[in-house]
Amino acid sequence: MIIVANWKAYVEDVEKAKKLFAVAKRLATTSKIRIVLAPSAAQLGLLAKGNTSKVAFAVQDVSATLGGAHTGENTAAAAASLGVTYAIVGHSERRAAGDTDAVVAQKLQHALAQGLIPILCVGEAERDAASQYLSFVRTQITSALEPLEPKDRIRVIIAYEPLWAIGKTSEEAIAAHDLAEMALYIRKVLAELLPGKEGKTTVLYGGSVEPENIRDLAGGSQVDGFLIGHASVDPHTFALLVKALA
Ligand code: PGA
After folding, report:
1. Rounded distance from Cα 148 to ligand 1 centre (Å)
2. What is the pTM of this model?
3. In a 3-state reduction of DSSP, which class is residue 21?
4. What is the DSSP string of 22-78?
5. Left if phi > 0, otherwise alpha if psi is -120 to 50, otherwise beta: which for 4?
6. Out of 93, 161, 210, 230, which one is annotated catalytic?
């Protein structure tokens, strides 16, 4: 199991970032869970460089541009040179800020070219009775993976994050049986892109994962781990999340 702590822009104080890292390091030594931290770009520079602990790092986004005259951009190469392992790509909060499927596909390719493991976020805004949300998620996955060679497709982690479940409470998160159904559907889509290897792809869930529901979601579905936002930025709650899976 893998837990990716998406700090978003919640952690603005450097001392808080250091404390969360210290807690994660301690948890990583005593648990079998793979812990990945995704701090802001500024904190990533501070925490990831020279990291020799069991904790791995993710960048929250990579630029659609390559290096050069692009003020304010954080390129995949810049993250890779810090020793970062993963890159979150296509998070709904980046899509809301303008990332189209085409931009997401480009970012994915930049991340892969730098040896980063992309965590591709997909998910519908709402569920409809006619199940159109399924084809929406299918398009998000295929538009990102189709341009890639099979050897790269297999490296992409899929994070299913329905928008309607993000930033709420565990009571409003997805039910375990609905997640199981969606995980199955995602693997069916992956089977078309990676025949026979769909079981090898890592599939995560994100959206209001809290200590109250993490165990239920893990046990009742086929996901390999979680992408956790608000519940990952409080040291005590984060420890509860990791221990619930241990
Ligand atoms: P949340 O966010 O855990 O606060 O719902 C998850 C995410 O957006 O990655």
Report:
1. 27
2. 0.97
3. helix
4. HHHHHHHHH-SSEEEEE--HHHHHHHTTT--SS-EEEES---SS-SSS-TT---HHH
5. beta
6. 161
Give residue-wise pLDDT tens across range 19-45.
999 999 999 999 899 999 999 999 999
* CA–CA distance, 177 with 205 (Å, rounded to integer): 13
Q: How far is the CA of 205 from the centre of ligand 1 (A)?
A: 9
Active site residue 161: yes
DSSP line for 141-205: HHHHHTTS-HHHHTTPEEEE--GGGTTS-GGGS--HHHHHHHHHHHHHHHHHHSTTTGGGS-EEE
Give the position, in ligand 1's atom list, of the atom nearest the Cα of 92. Answer: 8
Task: List the structure tokens of 168.
Answer: 């709420």
Q: Facing residues of 160 across strands? A: 122, 205
Nearest to 5 by CA among 19, 15, 20: 20
Ligand 1 centroid – CA 229 distance (Å):
4
Give CA 96 to chain center in angstroms: 16
pLDDT tens, position by position, 78-102: 999 999 999 999 999 999 999 999 9
